[in-house]
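Might you be able to consider the sequence and fold that I enclose below?
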Amino acid sequence: MKPLAYLHAAGGMGPNGDLELDLFDPSRVPLTADASPISLRALARQLNMPTPRLVTRYVELAVLGAQQIKRALAPSTRLYVATGMGEIVTVDALYHQIVPPASEMIMPAKFASSGNNMAAFFVARQMGLLSRNLTLSLEELSFEQTLSIVADDFAAGAMQAALVGAIDEAAVPRAFYLSHFPFAREHCIGEGSAWLVLGSDPAGAIGELLDATVFAPNPDQRDCMSAIRDIVSGDPIIVMPGFRLTAADIAELKQHIGAATHHAYLQHTGYYPTAVGLAMVGTFRKAWPSTTTFLHWNRDEYGRIGRLVWRVYGPQGR
């Protein structure tokens, strides 16, 4: 099956400023506490990485994650940002600043920085991109829907390369965060800024995007699985279960595609809407003995299913 796009680079930042994103490292310890909204500006100084002035922490998270892509990008590279919650901290603070009884005036710089698309603007400026950009939110399926649009744009011949990000930040107090993402109530809260470079040219690729589909609410799971065997090849397959999947759901997936293993990545990324982006980046951090295919299966609170299939090349490449 012809790929939807080729993957050329992957990088990002995980909870607590984590840059070591090999989620398959056997020595890696699962999160035991919520991610702390650490000072990213202080971290940037330690890492000698530039960050824009007068921007929000959410934008800092986006920019620092994107800088982990250690390659030059053509200015025409299109930029896509997926986020489940966007600028929740700054927008909430601005809201409480202007509504009674406070009724204060907003500082223009803070107001301008509060828009969800400002992260894309500053990443584009930092990476030297002069092309179109798009910020998209579909709650827990934000990343899946974004990759689906990216695949459509490649199919239409609208671009040769794309930089795709998945960004959501942690926030305190816990009750505030859970009011936006209640599914994390019984789990450790995470955050991340994950980035992928995709292109239409197979030269120099490290993997392939094979499928990116979002199904309407409450589809028959067997119908959603029916096309998987046509998508995957004879590579080893690892199932990456996302939100709201039961043990029976995972067992059915593995039985249907003959997958020997599954990986519970959420224990390492923490729970946040676009955690799959960090999981996908993590699959490119491990040196696989042979080309390996990954199936990510996600379900949101409305019963929609998101399906991603991608391949990471082994030592012999394609």
